[in-house]
Amino acid sequence: MAMPALIENALANALTLVIDLDPALRDIVVLSLRISLTAVVVASLIALPLGAALALWHFPGRGLIVVALNALMGLPPVVAGLTVYLLLSRAGPFGELGLLFTPAAMVIAQVVLVLPIIAALTRQQIEALWAEYGEQLTSFGHGRLRAIPTLLWDARFGLITVILAGFGRASAEVGAVLIVGGNIDGVTRVMTTAIALETNKGNLALALGLGIVLLTLVALVNAAAYLIGESARRRLG
Amino acid sequence: MLRHLFAGTGLLLTLAGSALAQDSAQDQSSSQDSQNERFIILASTTSTEQSGLFDALLPKFKESSGIEVRVVAVGTGQAFELGRRGDADSLLVHDTAGEETFVAEGYASERRDVMYNDFVLIGPADDPAGIRDAGSAQEAFSRIAEAEAPFASRGDDSGTHRAEQRQWQEAGVEASVSWYRELGSGMGPTLNTAAGMNAYVFADRATWIAFDNRQDLELLYAGDEALFNQYGSLLLSEERHPHLKHDLAEQWHEWLLSEEGQQAIADYELKGQQLFFPNAD
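^ inputs. structure came back:
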């Protein structure tokens, strides 16, 4: 297929998919969002306090953890997927749970991918704030532990971007969810694995059409976060 | 200060709340799964999945048995690995020699022929190696090697890759990296790459018929008995992996071999062509 015709077909495919509200596509979109949003929420709950703690406390081995987190931001999804697969496989330590090839396994894999990003970037943001306000905060007589929520709240606009970066990683990756989810039709098939499957079948126009739908969704989530951030900023005046 | 603290905690609680809501929604759906839906995990090949065969078979099987079959489509080598580790309840693959080894190793208690089709040689329409009129598969492979025409190989230890390697062996050819490209990918990606570099490629007929991005590629050689492609169903060992859903997997295995299952396989057509030919004994 010539390139312009391919793009035209892809756009037509994307439009038809959205306008027809294809039920199979709707299920795939809902599952994709549910898995990636759950993974980002779970990762944030761990990574925000973790990142803040790393910024505030200096202890032996801290440098090692900071470097490790930074390095893990570049963890190849396939490696994350393979590791989670080996852990959840029947022959692995958590095989009894029967989580392999379920959405829960995909959430776990995405948490592994997203957590280092959110933790590492949070540490960096909070460290800058702490350098600025640390003395002030401690002079009120509060301990560092009590400073964490305050700092996270003050850094919230920056942290929204951090969390969105995590969401971007989660919703864009295909290698990990393919291995631990198995791309089972109607059970663990998400946008990215569906795109990979259609590419494999040589249905390039449909694959690109799905890609356009995915990009639009990610853009909508980002726009929502931006608008919430802006309106909060305005209210603060 | 306190206000900030409360607000911060509130933010975290909201996040936690939404996470829990998500989780409980998932718990609910998974407990519903185990109550209302009986399912098995079937490790099978990309050729059966991508040709659309399962879309035709699985609803029929579900109707007659109430069992949902969840297909994980991988290369045959990886399917064996899933079976060995106890991650799949049933296997439907296409490497008879490998399947027999799998049974001999004690991982499966039974292996049965289910259906067949054939492998085909695909290549550029202008056929630089001249395999279109080859007298045998062996001759076609020899001509590709003599012409040193670019050849895209799966290189992924799949059933098709194993069959291709047997062809080179029989043709007595030592492939050289100057024209032989091992891609390490599934059938679809390999066809996509072959189309991009105008290379010869060894494919299963089902994936080729279903494949849409052919560009300049054409089916050039087929029909030798040596290109026979047999699919087999494996019943996994209860001793080796007692946790698997052996009852349900056995129902699927028996259904594939039954008259109803065999007929469903014969009935499946894509683009007006029958893709798989049932041959359970």
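Chain A has a mean pLDDT of 91. Chain A is about 80% helix and 0% strand.
thumbs up if we can close this ticket
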